[in-house]
Amino acid sequence: MSSRSDEPVFPRHFVWGASTAAYQIEGAWNEDGKGPGIWDTFCHRKGRIFEDQTGDVACNSYHLWEKDLKCILQLRLTHYRLSFSWSRLLPNGTTDHINEKGVAYYNRVIDDLLANHVTPMITLYHFDFPQSLQDRGGWKSADIADIFDSYARFCFQTFGDRVKLWLTINEPQICCTMGYEEGIFAPGLQELGTTAYVVGHNMLRAHAKAWHSYNTIFRKQQGGLLSLALNSDWAEPLNPSNPDDVSAAKRHRTFELGWFACPVFSTGDYPVAMRARIEEISKAVGYDGAPRLPRFSEDEPPVLGSADFFALNYYTSRKVRAAGTSHRELNMKTDLELERIIDPSWPVCGVKWLAVVPEGLRKLLKHIKVEYNNPAIYITENGFSQIGPVEMEDIQRGRFYWDTLCQVSKAICEDGVDIRGYFAWSLLDNFEWSDGFSVRFGLFHVDFSNEEFPRTMYHSGKEYAAIISKNCQHS
């Protein structure tokens, strides 16, 4: 990596990581006692995924963990974020049946990481919900909060002697909108205007129960930290002089980040503006059912304060303007009433939705500091995609990591944001949900046409490793 004038500076104990998710890398979808998950079901339906690809094999990490570990060590990561497959541990989703082979697999991964001085960060739920629970109502069911709490307790009891960083749920906003409103993610439902809010509510209930279980039962002995991973773009008004655009940008931030961050980090309830907006639209369309945005019960563990740090997944930014929508339709588009626009000056990498805006991350980090009481922040996902022919010398992506980490450094040093670590998405090229294998985010290329699934470091992986190495010289 060539010397540059804008050298980023990081705290002594800054965390350097990369992230993966079980369904996207493990494969072995029906081996060794694993139960089916909603992504197994979703991908096996024709027409859902790019070229009808599936995660049945993916990177074959269930059988090739040693190769993944070598990649982690080549990068000199201090931390590795991975997720548990809920149905690999509990095939029917409950502790009525524990799959010991699944337990053994994750024990091996955790032990190997620690033996090599790499700290694991574990996500309990990263989109791959057990199909047996989905058949019983899934996240729409009020009972799911207690079932998730039971699963979480099992994981704390089984692995918590070694795991000290936990995430309960990854990107609940994406799960709700893309899985239950738009239907392009599993379970593929399009129950417009209502179900997404119910699902999000039950996810927050489940998270809060799990946090309080950890706090009261396990924390004193295990000494770990627990949060949930929230995704957000940065949004700015297209025309800062237009009050409607300014309001639209605020509404975007409220519905995307505030939906889950406000209850956990700020007030214990949904944003006032969000509830008012939903009630306004409900009245406008003549909806007379139960309130679409539920209320938290005082009889349950409080959601406020149920996080020991702020975990942020950031990928892109948007300019936002107000946009009229029909008030005869009940859906989240009507609730938002805005249009998201990519600024022409922003380069787009790979997929059309991903504009490269490193400075947007800095602005978002400052917003979180001000809006959510200056929490300790881990950036748990951030990455740059590649499509089309494989480019091993991915110079643009290498520059992306440098530019992004410079912005993170400025957020720390100039803005006073308490950022504890950075996790690149992703360690490996993998199954990217509805895009299948057509989109590549890896620091390592995986040759899916070769039955040995060789992993080869991209130029960008070498750039990231060099940044880590330079930082570690001062730690």
UniProtKB/TrEMBL annotation:
GO cellular component: cytosol; membrane
InterPro entries per record: GH, GH_1_N_CS, Glyco_hydro_1, Glyco_hydro_1_AS
Keyword flag Hydrolase: yes
One Pfam family here: Glyco_hydro_1
A GO MF term: beta-galactosidase activity
UniProt keyword Transmembrane helix, yes or no: no
Family to which the UniProt record says this protein belongs: Belongs to the glycosyl hydrolase 1 family.
Name by which UniProt lists this protein: Beta-glucosidase
Species for this entry: Denticeps clupeoides
